[in-house]
Amino acid sequence: MKVSSPVGDFPFEPKRLEVTASGVVVHGEMGAWPATVRIDLADLPALVRLIPAPVRLGLVLAGGWAGLRLLRHR
Fold it and tell me: Structural domain tally of the chain?
């Protein structure tokens, strides 16, 4: 992975993935420095907005279909 910034491009090497009560944490190294990426529940709306609308619609429809099948088989 690469992190691009105004001061240059730095390699990011993920070392460990941690799921916490508040979200996901990726521990790694950016060049010579330890680095951490935290994705909290509050970040989800911003991440969902990055998904193209047709894909979001497909995910909603697939989730609804799976939910109906689950209810039907009970």
Answer: 1
